[in-house]
Amino acid sequence: MNKPKTKAVEMRNITKKFGDFTANDSIDLTVHKGEIHALLGENGAGKSTLMNVLYGLYTPTFGDIYINEDKVNITNPNIAIEKGIGMVHQHFMLVETFSVVENIILGMETTKGIVLDINRAREKVKEISESYGLYVDPDALIQDISVGMQQRVEILKALYRGADILILDEPTAVLTPQEIEELMSIMRNLAEQGKTIIIITHKLKEIKAAADYCTIIRRGKKIDTVKVDDVTEEQLAEMMVGREVSFAVEKNPMETGDKILEIQDIVARDNRNLKAVDGLSLEVYSGEILGIAGIDGNGQSELIEAITGLRPIESGKVLIKGKDITNNTPFDIINSGMSTIPEDRQRRGLVLDFTISENMILENYYKEPFSSRGRLNHKNIEKFTDDLIEKFDVRPRNSSYLAGELSGGNQQKVIIAREITNDPDILIAAQPTRGLDVGAIEYVHRYLVKQRDSGKAVLLISFELDEIMNVSDRIAVIYGGKIVDIIDAKDATENRLGLLMAGGGATDEEK
Question: What average pLDDT does range 280-308 have in this prediction?
Answer without folding.
Answer: 94
